[in-house]
What does this fold into?
Amino acid sequence: MVFPGFAGSEVLYGEDDKRIIGIRTGDKGIDKDGNKRPNFEPGVDLMAKVTVFGEGPKGSLIREVGKKLGIFDGKMPQVFETAIKEVIEIPESNSFPSPDTTVLHTFGHPLGLDTKGGGFLYKMKDNRVALGFVVGLEYEDPLLEPYQAFLSFKKHPLIAGIIQGGKVLQQGAKTLPAGGFYTMPKLAVDGAVFVGDSASTLNIQRLKGVHTAMKSGMLAAETIMTALEKEDFTSQTLDQYQQKVADSWIHKELYAARNFGQALSKKGFGKFVTIGAQYISGGRGFVDPMPIHADSATLTELSNLSANPPESPDTQDLDGKLYLDKLTGLYLSGTSHEENQPCHLVIPNPDLCMTECYDKYRSPCTRFCPAQVYELEQDDNGSKRLKLNPSNCLHCKTCEVKDPYNNIIWTCPEGGGGPKYSIV
Ligand SMILES: Cc1cc2nc3c(=O)[nH]c(=O)nc-3n(C[C@H](O)[C@H](O)[C@H](O)COP(=O)(O)OP(=O)(O)OC[C@H]3O[C@@H](n4cnc5c(N)ncnc54)[C@H](O)[C@@H]3O)c2cc1C
Ligand code: SF4
It folds into this structure.
């Protein structure tokens, strides 16, 4: 049975409080004050001999499993990149750098060599291209705005020439797990296994994770078959999945790329030397393992308290067709949510926002969110407050990753809400 439109909101544990026995779906029909609406429908408990967690990057259920069962203990911190992507229809007459060009990967512009990130362009059928820009969330400048970097990337002559006269059909944003091998959690516990991006199987060297996610799912399925035959769903049997991953080409690929993300993070031209060393040494490089720092810990404080985000020249050049503001892009993501529901973005300590965070970083959530969910409002007396538009949320999870105070917790909104990407 497939249950579309139901979000998993809670992990269920057995009597020993350690064995996972299923998940609870979220309640539907709760209003924004927490009261039941006439259409209230309680969540249901989905019980399973083995629960497979495949929530993609920064899952909200695996986060809680991590806290309770320590699956991330002893690993390097999970780190992420945020990607903004569009599907653009271009005129038939537009040309690519060569007739054979189907894929372009770039880095550097407009971030320079000190900030990790780059772009991609994939040729699709029907005169369409998939165009995206990825920013490593370990960036240090609190005034950086990934969406503006994406717009600048689109205006680089190489890209602008390919897409000129085009029209954006769809836009979206999502994080991808960039830590790889050294950030992979324990892959099995009593009653559960973890697959795909949730298990950090993406290969950051190739910027690809579909193949490893699928393979991890296949190996998990084989293990579950064995567990069914043996009628043993404890980690004693499910740990075979961990071993199968270790024996498979997933391990080979990820091990060879184990320091690649860290090498890309090096500043200046040292980056090229470090990346080169990865290729020559099969991923070992000069230091193995190279350290990884949590994305929430990397922003530098603004020393100049009068500093304000620059008014980007890009905002003057938006045409609503090929170069879009955030809200037009959001519209093209098809995002919708039930408006009358509790805010799914939980801010445990709202006082921090306008005191510490504004003073030290000028409220970076208003910039790193690609969907304008966070906005600064000013009242007649000049005092500022942070306003949230949760129904804009693209579910990219950037805010939970990058908030410098870890003061944003992303929870699942009412099932069925979110972006509706339709072009594949
Ligand atoms: C812009 C971009 C471009 C990419 N390009 C490529 C590429 O060209 N090739 C490639 O191989 N890889 C690419 N990747 C990476 C690839 O998309 C991922 O590695 C892959 O999708 C991971 O698959 P997954 O099943 O683990 O997670 P996902 O594809 O993220 O799927 C997880 C699903 O679980 C749902 N979910 C999460 N939490 C809950 C919950 N609590 N309850 C119910 N549902 C939930 C999510 O909504 C989502 O639908 C790209 C990633 C991005 C962001
Ligand atoms: S609120 Fe958070 S998860 Fe939602 S779009 Fe903005 S950054 Fe992404």
Observations:
- The chain has a mean pLDDT of 95.
- The longest strand covers residues 167-177.
- The pocket of flavin-adenine dinucleotide (ligand 1) is lined by residues 7-8, 54-56, 59-61, 83, 85, 132, 174, 176, 196-198, 202, 208-211, 213, 412 (CB under 6 Å).
- The CA atoms of residues 89 and 125 lie 10 Å apart.
